Amino acid sequence: PSFVVSPERQIWHCFGGCNKGGDCFTFLMEYENLEFVEALRILAKKAGVELRTSGFQTGLSSKKEKIYILNRLANEFYHYVLTKHPAGKTALVYLLNERKIDSRLIDTFMLGFSPKSANALSNYLINKKGYKKEDLIEAGLAFYVGGPSPSGEAGSGRTQAFDFFRGRLMFPLFDHRNNIVGFSGRALDDKAFGGKYINTRDTIVYHKGSMFFGLNIAKDEIKKTDHAIVVEGEFDVISMFKEGIKNVVAVKGTALTDNQASLLSRFTNNVSLCFDQDAAGWQATNRSLAVLEKKGFNITVVVMTNGKDADEAIKNDPISFKKAIKESIGIYDYLL
């Protein structure tokens, strides 16, 4: 009741605790935590207005916008390496033959591969696209090795930018506005340095506990069905999408956070948890139940009997897996 919108004056105001107000731009900036350039772009798209960018965009746009552009360029680079370059052949064969992920799915989710070379991406972005080492560091795409210059100036002299992701399958992480905010990199070798999965470190656009994999693709189906299925891994999402289950997202982390639950609540109030069938998965389920219950969600749990995770279960028996989703149990039955 304290929130008022005036269509005639094209303004809004909250007479509650925040006492904020403004126009459509300021509302979106407040609600989505955006800068003006981001809000302008989103609203222009909704209104069917084409925005033209100039050659000065990189210098004038915000730090967030620069990171979005860098991540998009990095994703195009990774995708090209996976699908068209000899350096990505092993990873491509792994996806096609072992994971049964065809080229259509690879393109849909814009999967990629980061070369094993120490600075293949850095060289591309710096030498071909004109970005600075500091830009790559700030985006989480690279890190410094070495010391400062003799004059003490940071980012110059003996310092060198090395790629953060090397020799890994790359899963781009889109927000619900289709900005690439970061990446998840999976090693082909389970003994790889850094573990099987590493994620982009926290930046001004990416925070691990507030992101889902696949939400940009799943959001319309989630709204249409008024139901979201939450799984643990990227391959779970892709395998379920392949079988026609498109209202599914994967957590980035070991369980749902308050921020992730708030994000989901924009699209639905009904959630089914479908985590791995092991001790860690059960613990993640229990922690997630507490978060969702506090937010007032209607919650069910999918109990799989023919696989350790959704990816394996749906490949073993798609019909049984889909039945398990339909027969997912309520929170109290699960706890009993």
Q: Care to give the gist of this entry?
A:
The protein contains 15 helices and 15 strands. It is an alpha+beta fold and 336 residues long. The longest helix has 22 residues, at 63-84.
Secondary structure layout:
Blueprint (H helix, E strand, L loop, with lengths): L2 E4 L4 E4 L6 E2 L1 H9 L3 H12 L9 H4 L2 H22 L4 H10 L4 H6 L3 E3 L5 H9 L4 H7 L2 E4 L14 E4 L4 E7 L5 E8 L9 E3 L12 E2 L1 H11 L2 E4 L2 H9 L5 E4 L6 H7 L5 E5 L4 H16 L3 E4 L8 H7 L1 H9 L2 E2 H5 L1
Parallel strand pairs: 11-12, 11-13, 13-14
Antiparallel strand pairs: 1-2, 2-3, 4-7, 5-6, 7-8, 8-9, 10-12, 14-15
Helix pairs in contact: 1-2, 4-8, 10-13, 13-14
Question: Which labels suit this protein?
Answer:
single chain; 336 residues; 15 helices; 18% strand
Describe the structure.
Helix content is 43%, strand content 18%. The protein is of the alpha+beta class. The strands form four sheets. The chain has a six-stranded mixed β-sheet, with helices on both faces. A four-stranded antiparallel β-sheet has the order 4-7-8-9, with helices on one face. Strand 13, helix 12 and strand 14 form a beta-alpha-beta unit. Helix 10 packs parallel to helix 13 and helix 13 crosses helix 14. The chain is globular.
